[in-house]
Amino acid sequence: MTTTRRLREGDREILRLAVPAFLALVAEPLFLLADAAVVGRLGTTPLAGLGIAAVVLQTAIGLCVFLAYGTTVGVARALGAGDRRAALAQGADGLWLAVLIGAVATVVGVAATGPLVGLFGASAEVAAPAETYLRLAFLGTVPLLLMLAATGVLRGLQDTRTPLVVAVAGNAVNVVLNVVLVHGVAGWSGLGIAGSAIGSVLAQVASAAALVWVVVRGARREGASLRPDLPGIRGAARAAVPLLVRTLTLRAAFLVTTYAVVLGAAPGDDAVGLAAHQLAITLWGFLAFALDALAIAAQAITGRQLGAGLVEEARASTARMVRWGLGSGVVTGVGLAALSPVLGGLFVDDPAVHAALVPVLLVAALGQPLAGVVFVLDGVLIGAGDGRYLAWGSSLTLAAYAPVVLLVADAGLVAVWVSLALVFMGLRGVVLGHRARGRAWLVTGARTGRLS
What we know:
By secondary structure, this protein is mainly alpha-helical. It has one domain (about 5-435). About 80% of the residues lie in helices and about 0% in strands. It contains 17 helices and no strands. The chain is globular.
């Protein structure tokens, strides 16, 4: 096979996995984008409250993203080693782990809603809607974690289309429920911000049921056991610890960024800055998920290739995907910059929020090419099972970033975003690029838990 043909086939495989993943990942943040658009019509204060609640909820769920990453890696490696039955059995362990973690997180989250919102030091007017939304939204924790785990199983099986179909359908349901439950219909006045949380939870339950059904059907077809397997679940939990640390430090970076926004606001006048920050961080997440499609492809491809012992192919795929990441980041950055003057009006009518948002979005646009490369390298190392390095590297990155963003807090919202989009992402790029240039992450063979 010629080099040109291999490159073309590699590109086709990247696109086959990344395009559906891109569309599904773009659909995922629409849960919060839809909430922001609907709640924004209630006013600036409810939107600011949603901003705090969304950061807390995204952090709680984001900490459990290892359920998707861990199952993707384990399933892909077993698939590369030629054992589809073991792959699905290991996926079942991930589903059970999601249920256990989700049940605990729901109880803790509902009980701790008030103190969690209080950590941000927002005014009472902003804190009240934040608590209302967050307490109800925590009820969707189990279905959200099941969605993560089941999606990871399907990605490991090189199937990114099924999560796309479910994400699109789930978001359609979410939008309809949000509009009806927040603003009412046929003379009913609606539930306000509480209706937004309830609508999202109902849509998440439906999406989780659909994804789990697909995984269960595949496991039964292959004769893989679906019963709870404690050694397998414990093994999945142990393997997830480094990824949990990695995710914890990344989410902590966003939390400290939001805290810096509050810290830099004038006393009693935090609504505009927080509302603008909420819109910016939601749009950043929207684009980050879009760029992360290549990271999803990197996880699946790297895991399968290393499971099959194809070391040089894994390295070549990495170089190819890094170029894809850079190019994709340029595209999203140009698009964000071009649309920055009009995006604010889609969510809120407050001119002060519009004025604060535009320069922040321009800064975020500058950081997109760097983000594209960082996400790909992160996906490659996750696919390689290099969790320990990712944990240490992300911890060092946070330790270097936190003092910087807190020092510039008084300089305003734009300075905070310069720190996030350029300093934080730059530090991540240095740490991940250093590792990718070496060979320590190129470990071959399947890493499976239970085998039946």
